[in-house]
Amino acid sequence: MASADKLINTDVPEKDVFALHFLRSLSNLRTQNPLNSPDKSIDRVRKIKKAAYVSMARAAGGNSRLWSRALLRRAAKDDNKSVRFSRRKRKVTWKISSKRRRSNQRAPVVEEAAERLRNLVPGGGGMETSKLMEETAHYIKCLSMQVKVMQCLVDGLSQK
Amino acid sequence: MNGAIGGDLLLNCTDMSVLERQRAHLKYFNPSFDSPLAGFFADSSMINGGEMDGYLATAGLNLPMIYGETTVEGDPRMSISPETTLGTGNFKKRKFDTETKDRNEKKKKMNREEVTEEEEEKSKITELNNGSPKSIKKMKNKAKKEENNCSNDSSKVTKELEKTDYIHVRARRGQATDSHSIAERVRREKISERMKFLQDLVPGCDKITGKAGMLDEIINYVQSLQRQMVHSGYSHEMVNSGYSNEMVNSGYHHVNPMQQAETSSDPLSCFNNGQAPSMWDSYVQNLYGSLGV
User: Fold this and answer.
1) Which of A18, A25, A120, A147 is the mutation pick for testing B, counting most B CBs within 10 A?
2) Does ipTM exceed 0.90?
3) Fewest C-beta atoms under 10 Å: which of A121, A151, B9, B127?
């Protein structure tokens, strides 16, 4: 489902990449926590959710996308064991709008919606609005792909 | 009618334009597309008839492809070496002169080259392009030769230009020429362009007009996608724990009240009717089996 757009580059890899990453993370989870040990189902679900997000970020482009970097960094911060995150050597510069946000000069209608979007999309805090929307587009594509993959897996596994 | 004159004239005129115009100017010049040409000629008196002919004559050629190829690395060399062997030398030189001027004057910072937005233009370009693929290659080869010719001097310049692509902007007639308002306008157009792109991405957004509604819709969609992820996580957990099918459904019922209502279709439907095509299903089974779980 990779799409080619001339203006903004939002190419997303195929389903297989996502599926592979996700299944790998699931099997890691299985080996780490055998069925008896974890206490509540909610914790297991949380782990699965985190594994899903991390695998999505890795499948979608690792360090090359801002939101995926932010996701991986967040995951690596919480749990030092399972997620490996390497810092970029090259400095990546993009316009930081955090100072400007208080003054809120630019099109307040757009900006308040952009604020809500920043809370949703990982890594949105340091981005300009235009860059934010680019990242949102790619994020939406990856999210929908990941959701499809997960639902397919569930269907496949539950039909056994 | 050479590049030097064009450069001098460019210095005198007002420098600003809006996003589409600058893109149209940079990438492609279509004689049938009126507004950028009109605006361009209106506010800048520098274009004489000869140059106009030069523009119109080159409009039919495959300029966008060349620009896509050589804009970044081609520009500084072209300005350094005024003579070009290209048939469209005039037009390209003007653009390259403006590029160097931009670097010097530091007008605007854009991170990538952009194609013009007009769909009709694109279709016309493709029509014209199909006619003469050879000429494209010729021009590309010539551009590369010139690139090789003066490479030492310009390597630093090239890098500079690659990091910071300044694109020349020009104000429209009758609009404010304040640099801040121009930048503001360009930024707004960028945002609206990406909004259009997002509109195609989010289902059911054709009817909604206006930025606010669109953005709300986008936010809702992202939230719903994230909730779907959580749903699938729950169902995965049920499945992996080895429950049977009925238990999975009941477990889902149990889990469901804890969360907000799904905005999209009924979540239980994913158990009843397979969303996956059958081929994908078996493929997935093989994958899972091969992982040894």
Assistant:
1) A147
2) no
3) B127
